[in-house]
Design a protein that fits this description.
about 160 residues, 1 helix, five-stranded antiparallel β-sheet, globular, mainly beta
Length: about 160
């Protein structure tokens, strides 16, 4: 049913602070994940490439607000903890879905100039996630509303 494939992740050993190798995201992509028990606090990373400025690509919670950093521009979304979150990007706009339902969007025309050699899952390379990352799916194109709803079990 899904017209896109997930990005290739290579998991060397089963430690969540171990870097995973991933290719650079294209101009359009979709990321889906669900978390539980993150709570308040700062910089609780879902994923991060450990780079800064124009090369930054990361997603983290800070004081219960979800932050997505693409190329140094941070988009924020609230009320997303303990749900399935989907961030879908078409090269100019990030759409937020929770539990398969569209919630809001944020303009962002920055791109990631390089991903680096790794993506840290559940960490930024230094700080580990305090909570549970129940799932993480990365797609190499923007999924449609119907595809997101189907994957999330809405339809």
């Amino acid at each position: 049913y899904i017209r896109t494939s997930t990005a290739a992740l290579s998991r060397p050993i089963d430690l969540y602070t171990t870097p995973y190798k991933i290719g650079r995201p294209d101009a359009a992509w979709t990321i889906m994940f669900s978390t539980y028990g993150i709570g308040s606090g700062v910089d609780k990373y879902i994923f991060d490439n450990g780079l800064s400025e124009s090369s930054a690509f990361g997603c983290y919670y800070s004081n219960n607000i979800l932050n997505l950093n693409i190329g140094g521009t941070v988009s924020t979304f609230s009320d997303t903890e303990n749900t399935e979150v989907c961030l879908s990007y078409d090269g100019s706009t990030i759409k937020l879905y929770t539990n398969g339902i569209y919630i809001s969007s944020s303009a962002n025309t920055d791109t990631v100039s390089e991903i680096g050699s790794v993506i840290y899952i559940g960490s930024d390379g230094t700080n580990a996630l305090d909570g549970q990352l129940k799932s993480l799916k990365i797609y190499d194109s923007q999924l449609t509303d119907l595809e997101i709803a189907h994957i999330s079990g809405v339809y």
